Every structure is written in structure tokens, then in C-alpha cells.
């Protein structure tokens, strides 16, 4: 059962058929393996700090969409911290840190206003 979940996650993350050791993986591949490791045991809450930071645009989108699909598919909570407006736009709620205080903003408004580039954004899905 766990093996099947692992295969599915690795396929969804574009890593199927990879038998390389950690030292032979690129930074982006390592980051995707970390996402798979975070999801494999189906935790009640996933905390993701810049989960797409080292990824190219196409891979970033695939990984972000996979992460944000997790709550609906598995009943898992998700909290993502990012500086990436495209990733933040996938969140149900968006908090922006300003002056050391978290401020809730509408997701589309935060992205349009560029608020996500001025500090960490915590976004998530329930």
C-alpha cells in the first residue's frame, strides 16, 4: 500500500523511474522528493516552507497544484509559506507579514497588489 502511494506521488512529481541516489539528484529533484516524503504518510497537517523555491516554472506549477490538491483529496490541512505570487494565488486564505504582524488579505488582491513579494505569505487550504 505504501509502495503504491510512493510510486503515485513520485509519478505525480515527475520522478517516476528515478533510481538515482540523493547525491545524484538536482536541487529541484531533491525538493520534489522532500514533498513526496512529506505526503507519503498522509499527515493531518503539511507545513511547507518555500516548497517550490528551487523549481523551474513548469515543475513549480505541477508541485504547487499537487500540494494544494492534498486537502481536498486526503483531508489534510496545508500551510504554505512562500514569496511566489503564483503559488500564493492557489491558496484559500492568504496572510501577509507586515511589521511583524500577520494580516489577512484576499488572495487575488494580494497577488495583484504584489503584496506577496514584500514579505512571507502564509497560504493554505482546508
User: Going across the major beta sheet, what is the strand order?
Assistant: 1-2-5-3-4
**Count of DSSP E strands?**
5
The general outline is globular
Structural class: alpha+beta
Q: What's the end-to-end separation, in Å?
A: 25 Å
CATH overall fold name: Rossmann fold
Report the sheet with the most strands, covering strand number, pairing sense and barrel closure: 5 strands, mixed
Give the name of the CATH architecture: 3-Layer(aba) Sandwich
Number of domains: 1
Average the pLDDT over all residues and give the rounded result: 80
Give the helix level as a range of percent: 40-55%
CATH superfamily, called what? Answer: P-loop containing nucleotide triphosphate hydrolases
Low-confidence runs = none
Layout of strands and helices, then pairs:
Elements: H1 2-12, H2 27-40, E1 45-49, H3 57-74, E2 77-82, H4 85-88, E3 93-98, E4 101-105, H5 107-113, E5 121-125
Parallel strand pairs: 1-2
Antiparallel strand pairs: 2-5, 3-4, 3-5
Helix pairs in contact: 1-2, 2-3
